[in-house]
Inverse folding.
């Protein structure tokens, strides 16, 4: 757990949005995250890739405490993630998350999906929350679907609503957990386009994805994970053209072959 | 001579009895309504104790459900109305109507809490995660996201339980509540017209259940609008 010395260090590195220090996590006996060290600066775009079971999703789910870690520190925007519920809720307000399966609320309309948290968590007046939600729905290009239910939309549309829902909380960081993996191929682009726009506006982003085109276009750094460890991290250019570890080379050869 | 002669049915008597039963109907309905509200509120609380795994409260909830499902309703009503006042003299002021309503409420809460718990567990965990990820507390997520979806799943079973409760109000006549069963029973005993008495009574219960089944269809349709 964090000490006062760590606090002083934090104050010094104020451009760090997310810091993971010696992060360890186990599921029972299974050591799923091993000594993860990662610093994400404000405005940085990071793509995380790696084989399934490598701990990518678990790592980003630790950042907003959907998973608990057992060892090490997680510091978000100067706030350490402990068992303090107030801290956790505060961090979750600042950290948006987009899930592989969208996880929209099926009993609420698209607009209600977007206004629920602003109204009940941020205590925004309904009218104001709706106006903001409509702005974001326009940005993800589906304002005309505002009164429909999620079940009436395509996968790509649902994922764009999910992005808008997160943005309505005005987050400092966005986490993407394989946002295009559950989509039909022709819908991937519409979601990636929205994500590229978001990146270009300076949003701090951590994105678990195998969309290597996306990584090359927007990522400041690409991180490769295997067996719960960060094996390699580099700028996209060097990462793809000149991978260092054998494990990375093997992985890239397997996903880029076709 | 045939075994069954419809001419034996005295329609005039049946009509008179029906009007007496309808006069007692508010007693039956208010008992059912009161017990429904009580059982539903208590059931939700018991279910949440178990879903959130709150220490002590969870165990108490399990004990409660075990007892009220494990013993007959009639025994519970007798214990409550005849037994408990011997232990706690203040309870002697409790009317039979209140005892019956309370007893029915406590009994059906056990069943309803299992229905509600199953419905909550049936909602994808990802819904709770999505709600937490936008900064909601677990209680807010439960109230705004999980329970509304669980309600849709639970409505048919809850209505089943309510129908059971409505018919079980007939047991209150054993405590001396002047509800519709007691009315029919009293009339049958003095007129010896058992068939007419209980047939009219049965039809009244049946009609009530049909009305509530229609209400259930409306509720299901409204809750299913989004799907």
């Amino acid at each position: 757990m964090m000490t006062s010395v760590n606090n002083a260090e934090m104050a010094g590195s104020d451009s760090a949005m997310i810091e993971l220090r010696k992060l360890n996590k186990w599921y029972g006996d299974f050591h799923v995250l091993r000594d993860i060290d990662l610093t994400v600066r404000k405005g940085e775009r990071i793509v995380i890739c790696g084989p399934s079971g490598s701990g990518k999703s678990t790592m980003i789910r630790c950042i907003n405490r959907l998973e608990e870690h057992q060892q090490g520190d997680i510091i978000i925007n100067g706030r350490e993630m402990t068992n303090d519920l107030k801290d956790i809720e505060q961090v979750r307000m600042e950290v948006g998350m987009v899930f592989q399966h969208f996880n929209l609320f099926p009993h609420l309309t698209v607009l209600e999906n977007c206004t629920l948290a602003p109204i009940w968590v941020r205590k925004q007046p309904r009218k104001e929350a709706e106006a903001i939600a409509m702005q974001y729905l326009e940005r993800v290009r589906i304002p005309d679907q505002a009164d429909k239910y999620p079940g009436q939309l395509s996968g790509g549309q649902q994922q764009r609503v999910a992005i808008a829902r997160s943005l309505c909380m005005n987050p400092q960081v966005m986490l993407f957990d394989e946002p295009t993996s559950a989509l039909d191929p022709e819908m991937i682009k519409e979601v990636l386009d929205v994500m590229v726009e978001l990146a270009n506006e300076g949003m701090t982003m951590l994105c678990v994805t195998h969309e290597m085109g996306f990584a090359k276009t927007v990522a400041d750094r690409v991180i490769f994970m295997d067996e719960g460890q960060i094996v390699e991290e580099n700028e996209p250019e060097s990462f793809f053209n000149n991978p260092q570890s054998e494990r990375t080379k093997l992985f890239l050869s397997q996903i880029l072959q076709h | 001579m045939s075994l069954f002669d419809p001419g034996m049915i005295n329609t005039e008597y049946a009509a008179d009895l029906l009007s007496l039963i309808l006069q007692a109907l508010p007693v039956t309905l208010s008992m059912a309504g009161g017990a429904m509200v009580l059982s539903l509120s208590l059931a939700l609380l018991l279910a949440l104790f178990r879903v959130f795994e709150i220490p002590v409260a969870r165990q108490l909830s399990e004990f409660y459900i075990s007892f009220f499902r494990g013993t007959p309703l009639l025994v519970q009503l007798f214990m409550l109305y005849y037994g408990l006042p011997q232990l706690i003299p203040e309870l002697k002021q409790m009317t039979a109507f209140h005892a019956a309503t309370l007893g029915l409420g406590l009994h059906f809460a056990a069943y309803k809490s299992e229905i509600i718990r199953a419905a909550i567990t049936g909602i994808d965990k990802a819904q709770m995660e999505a709600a937490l990820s936008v900064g909601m507390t677990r209680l807010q997520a439960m109230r705004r996201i999980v329970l509304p979806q669980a309600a849709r799943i639970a409505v048919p079973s809850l209505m089943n339980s309510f129908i059971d409760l409505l018919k079980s109000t007939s047991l209150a006549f054993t405590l001396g509540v002047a509800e519709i069963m007691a009315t029919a029973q009293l009339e049958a005993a003095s007129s010896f017209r058992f068939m007419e008495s209980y047939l009219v009574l049965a039809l009244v219960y049946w009609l009530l259940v049909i009305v509530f089944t229609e209400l259930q269809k409306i509720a299901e349709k409204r809750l299913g609008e989004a799907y």
User: Anything to note?
Assistant: Residues 1-13 of chain A have pLDDT under 50 and may be disordered. Chain A touches chain B through 30 residues (CB under 8 Å). Residues 185-200 of chain A form the longest helix (16 residues). The CA atoms of residues 139 and 197 of chain A lie 9 Å apart.
